[in-house]
Amino acid sequence: MGRLRERRAVVSLDDPPDVAEDLRLRSLYVRKLIQEGPSEPQCVGRVDIPKVIVQFWHDSCAIPSDVRECLESWEVLTTRGFTHILFDEKKARLFISRRFGPPEVAAFDRCHHPAMRSDYFRLCYILMNGGLYVDADDFYQGADCDSLFRDDRLKVQPFCFDPDGKRMVGADIFLRGGARSAGWIFYINNNPLIAPPSHPIIRLALDRSTRILLSHCTENLEVQSTTGPGNLTASLVRHSIASERAGAPRDFTLLTDWESIAATRWSLSYRNDERNWRLWWMLVNSPGAARSSSADSSSEGRPVERTGLEARL
After folding, report:
1. For every residue of the chain, which 3-state class applies, written as one string?
2. Most CB atoms within 10 A, among 5, 94, 219, 258?
3. What is the pTM of this model?
4. What contacts 129, CB < 8 A, 6 or more positions away?
5. Which candidate, 95, 276, 275, 154, places its Cα nearest to that of 86?
6. Cα(110)–Cα(116) distance, integer angstroms
7. CB atoms within 10 A of CB 285
8. Residue 151 φ then ψ, to 5°
9. Burial of 227 by CB count in 10 Å (0-12 exposed, 13-18 middle, 19+ buried)?
10. What are the CA-CA distances from residue 181 to residues 11, 29, 36, 169 (Å)?
11. Cα–Cα distance between 25 and 6 in angstroms, integer?
12. How far is Cα 208 from Cα 33, in angstroms, rounded to an integer?
């Protein structure tokens, strides 16, 4: 009966935003997407995704050696027909100012941590140009990734978080049909982000993020829900439900094997200071801490104590 009630809760709502903006309902919906398996591409043969790898590090003059090692791991793909581009904050802002309008520039300026600016910039770039955006802490594993560019669907990676255990649930567990726990949170990561130009889900995500940033100009907004995975998840769910109701084919697919292509390096030095958005967020919200509207993106960061963190979507 519990599963039946969950299923009805998802499909009985007439307005996609009702599900997309409710954390529990959208988690249930994402679980349904994950466990029903991949859909077949409807546009096989169309190659609308440029073979461009885009990355971001806020200060190109101060890239830590361990981060640079990750970035350089993708260079081998330039011998296979790919272009590899690295943006910093100045180049990202210039791109947005040339390709978008004053609202998007203002929204970028209101991103108060480099992680937020990275999140926001990737939406702008992929919406305008298409390609593959991948985080600076992902190390290329050498696997073939040409198949990711062979149709015009958005490709994204599903995740699952267990708030009770304060840990991620392994893909080998949550991808199984029927795998569930009452507290698990299913969501869509915004890394990698692979899409053709003008994909409607990316448009929704950029518009939603811009609206939130411009309407909360005096607050330190939480990263995940404003520009990160929570924002992308809400946008994908809204679009997917609307497409289902319209009888339109699914124009996105969930990657279940991204770890064969790239591995996240968790031991990087920047994770021990304020350049790590999770530690920064803890610091600015700790009792008695001085609130700051921006992180110092040019410094090496101030060390902060590491503690357990819950996923914030």
Report:
1. CHHHHHHHHHHCCCCHHHHHCCHHHHHHHHHHHHHCCCCCCCCCCCCCCCCEEEEECCCCCCCCHHHHHHHHHHHHHHHHCCEEEEECHHHHHHHHHHHCCHHHHHHHHCCCCHHHHHHHHHHHHHHHHCEEECCCCEEECCCCCHHHHCCCCEEEEEEEEECCCCEECCHHHHCCCCCCCCCCEEEEEEEEEEECCCCHHHHHHHHHHHHHHHHCCCCCCCHHHHCCHHHHHHHHHHHHHHHHHHCCCCCEEECCCHHHCEEECCCCHHHHECCCHHHHHHHHCCCCCCCCCCCCCCCCCCECCCCCCCCCC
2. 258
3. 0.84
4. 50, 52, 197
5. 95
6. 9
7. 11
8. -145, 170
9. buried
10. 20, 14, 17, 10
11. 8
12. 22
∠ CA(229), CA(225), CA(133), 5° rounding? 30
What are 88's two structure tokens?
């910093």
Cα–Cα–Cα angle for 29, 235, 181, nearest 5°?
A: 30
pLDDT tens-digit series, residues 142-184: 999 999 998 999 999 999 999 888 888 988 888 877 667 778 9
Structure tokens at 183: 């507290």
Q: How far apart are CA 225 and CA 146, in angstroms?
A: 31
What's the rounded mean pLDDT across residues 128-153? Answer: 95
